[in-house]
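Hi R.,

Here's the chain you asked about this morning:
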Amino acid sequence: MDDAAEGYRSALASHYPGPASITYAGKAFLCKGIAQWTCRQNLWVDCTGEGEIAIALAGGVTREHILVHGVNKSTADLDSAIRHAGTLVVDNLTELHRLAGLFPASSSGFPNLWLRLLPGLAVQTHHTHTQTGQHDSKFGMTRTEMIEAALFCKKNNLPLKGIHFHQGSNFHDAGPLKAAIDLGLDLAKEIGLGKDWGFSPGGGWGVAYHEDELPQPDTKEYIRVITENVIEGCQARGLPMPHLHLEPGRSLVARAGVAIYKVGTVKRRGDKIWVLTDGGMTDNPRHAMYGARYSCLPVSGVGREGSEQVSIAGPYCESGDVVIEDLLMPKLDEGELLAIPASGAYHLSMSSNYNGSRRPAVLWLEQGEEARIMIRRETIDDLLKRDSVQ
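And here is the predicted structure, written out as tokens:
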């Protein structure tokens, strides 16, 4: 993760003359240990609601480094954002009106407000469930709504300081960002954003999960496309350079995680071979949700030659409890350990206790240091703690 963060910092320093920040997307995976890491890296943390805000605070993230998102924020979410965040991204007009009514802008420490634009333009991802910028998306505001929101902020003395948009998650081609950047800059000019304004063309830059997706998407190319279009667009419109914010959560943490599974049973049925493990959709629902593809290696004998096509599935009572389908692997035996790389993002953050499963432990590995437990394994007592029946 350190190298990934440094790659973004150096690319931004090389390509962008104005102020710039990197925001870690808490939804990718957030715990106290990760929050502490963002502090060491001087990153912002994107929090969705009061739960993630609480984790960020517990990890020592300061107010000015907490940025709050959310498509349908509750009153509790807004209250937490007002008290603890430096920046609040407003998703819709209803939220803006509620915000003005509940928390007057004269309140002490009111956060800066950004408006979330729905650009009507998606990026190419492997599944529609990971696209967010298209016309029928549930996220953000149309151009007309953005103008209405800006007028409302001015009328009610709300600190409107920026524009944000997001087009999709895990995309590999930065080209489609240009048209959305132009739309965002046009709006910034129209609504009168000027000195000390923020602009975030989202995040979602991808990683390679499978050999077919190699080489890894080029971070420098992603930065180049964004910065060149922001610089040229601002110059053409007479806008001052914004504080540029990037939100590359997945591409910071995904490759840092490796999931370890133990093979319990191997079922060979003609051409179909099932390798059943002690984990699956409850700790990694991405394949079940939208067909994500992964690679896998045996922990013992990494260099063993692949000899059979297998599907790797978990122990849960769902036919969709599959992690990998039709992957060439060496012959596997019961009791072996398997390693699935690029498991650091959108696994445990979307996990569940289905079938009474308990979430696994997470270890922190630092070069030259002993491994330490960052999150302990859940216990049966954890499953029972919320049950109020005596």
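One quick note: The chain has a mean pLDDT of 90.

Cheers,
M.
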